[in-house]
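name: query_chain
kind: protein
chains: 1
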Amino acid sequence: MKFLLKFKALFILCFATSFVHAQYEIKPKEGFTPQIGIMVDMLEELKDRITEDVRDLTLEETDFLFDDKANSIGAMIMHLAATESYTQVETLEGRRWTEGEAAYWAIAGGMGDESREKIKGKPIKYYLDLWDEVREITLAGLKTKDDAWFAANIDEGMDNHWAWFHILEHGASHMGQIALVKSRLPKKP
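structure:
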């Protein structure tokens, strides 16, 4: 009974404190228009969470494949950078990748046998730095846009807001896959 009372008191204290000192809020990032700033806040939060989860991986863990159809964590991070790069040029510059850009990013875009074979041998920092570079370009580009642009269509039935929402949901999906791969990593002695 004492345990239940202590647990109840602790629960009430924690629950009440969470309202007074909210830990999780989505607020527009400074330097952006309100709607874009909210998207940037969410994009940065997700990227920070993924980065925190993988930044200490060894090379073997970065390259680990738990079966012949799986993708490595390094490949998934590079894939996230590639997808964001494509969305940048499409939405911020109104174009498609150049031949050179397509050649560089295509291997990470597909996530198939070729990426399993070729995206390996680099430390996790390599992939995270690459994603950081891509994100810097994203943030610089989004700072030049406003909420009217964000709501404008880039194709029939797709606006810029949805395109960047897709980057967000795409990252969240791969965050789950990264967690799955991490759960399959060989146990350290």
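note: Confidence is low (pLDDT under 50) at residues 9-22.
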